[in-house]
Specification:
single chain; 374 residues; TIM Barrel; 15 helices; 9 strands; 14% strand; globular
């Protein structure tokens, strides 16, 4: 990555953000990352926006994690104010902070293939007389610029995110894919471009298919996509399994206990059977269908999270577990999928005061007992 004056300023600012780690009163001696590393894996969380501005939260992340994912700062909306410019300031600050703290970084995401997740200028863009060439130019420029800037500091990239329609299993179309002439060739181009820019990085397809009822078509669609990658020689190394569990499909809440474990194992077996590795990229446990008392909710979340973690860590192909928020205070679920009656959700390993909860214990014990990573 080329270092210019702005990069140096970002690094200086990030170093200043590293606090003396507080002694978390209830924190166990071994961090979650240390426990994960016993089997050759890593544990981490997302970081960015308001939570990155909180020094106590940064300290908690530094104390527990060996891996972070910028929550939004590497997405098109954050990086591309228009077709001609990039704004790396927020992303640079997080990457520099992680580097100073000796924490690895995952890249998320080079192509979030949903129409509503592109900047508005993409839908209004003039693709000219040769739309395919212009769409390809935009994508190649974006992926090459971002991946080149951060490799080799970032060794694993979610190159493409959520291109399978959950309800049907079909491939999602966007302004960009329509201009290019199809979703499949556009997605392939993203991976080939990333491989050329970072030959030794792990390239990941990331999606939110789940083990709960309602995701049958989604799982089938992801398998078809992965099979197509192999048939066409597309350089995809791993499947990122987002693992937003507990809440069921987007159209409604499924109570805990509704998981389809046999079908889920069959899905994962098919994925690793094609030679893909696995990552848990965005783990949390949505408690919206649970009764209000916090203690009962916390235990149910821990039990459900333990069952899922044990299953996933039973695969030696699993490389890491990344929580999508370490504390309830900064969970995306509070805003985007709130509980009724104004009750705060409790979906993460730490509560809103950064005290460990039963889910933290469940993850720690599961990591400690996990078999070795292949």
């Amino acid at each position: 990555m080329t270092i210019d004056r702005r990069d140096l300023l970002a690094l200086a600012g990030a170093t200043a953000l590293l606090p003396a780690l507080p002694a978390f009163a209830a924190a166990p001696a071994a961090s979650l990352d240390q426990l994960a590393r016993r089997s050759g894996r890593r544990f981490g969380t997302c970081l960015g926006g308001g939570n990155f501005a909180d020094p106590a939260y940064r300290a908690l992340v530094a104390a527990q994690c060996g891996l972070i994912t910028p929550e939004n700062e590497l997405k098109w909306q954050a990086l591309r104010p228009d077709a001609d410019h990039f704004d790396f300031r927020a992303a640079d600050r997080i990457v520099a902070w992680a580097d100073a703290a000796a924490i690895q970084v995952r890249g998320h995401t080079m192509l979030w293939h949903r129409e509503e997740r592109f900047p508005k200028w993409v839908a209004a863009h003039d693709f000219g007389t040769d739309p395919r060439a212009e769409a390809g130019r935009l994508l190649v420029e974006h992926v090459r610029t971002v991946v080149t800037r951060y490799a080799p500091k970032i060794r694993s990239f979610d190159v493409v995110n959520e291109t399978v329609v959950s309800e049907t299993g079909a491939l999602r179309e966007t302004t960009l894919s329509r201009a290019y002439g199809g979703t499949e060739p556009l997605v392939d181009l993203a991976f080939h471009t990333a491989r050329a820019a970072a030959p030794h990085a792990q390239l990941v397809y990331n999606d939110y298919m789940s083990w709960e009822p309602g995701f049958e078509a989604h799982r089938a669609g992801v398998l078809r996509l992965l099979q197509g990658f192999r048939a066409r020689g597309v350089p995809v190394d791993a499947l990122g399994v987002q693992s937003h569990i507990g809440g069921g499909p987007e159209q409604g809440a499924a109570p805990f206990g509704g998981r389809q474990e046999k079908a889920w194992r069959a899905f994962l077996d098919a994925v690793v059977g094609m030679g893909y590795r696995l990552l848990v990229t965005e783990f949390d446990v949505d408690d919206r269908a649970l009764p209000p008392p916090p203690a009962a909710r916390d235990q149910a979340v821990a039990d459900y999270g333990r069952a899922y973690a044990e299953l996933m860590l039973g695969y030696p192909q699993l490389d890491c577990v990344v929580a999508w928020g370490l504390s309830d205070r900064y969970s995306w679920l509070q805003q985007f999928r709130p509980r009724t009656a104004g009750l705060a959700k409790r979906p993460t390993p730490y509560d809103d005061a950064f005290a460990p909860k039963p889910l933290r214990t469940a993850l720690a014990e599961t990591f400690a007992n996990a078999g070795a990573r292949a």
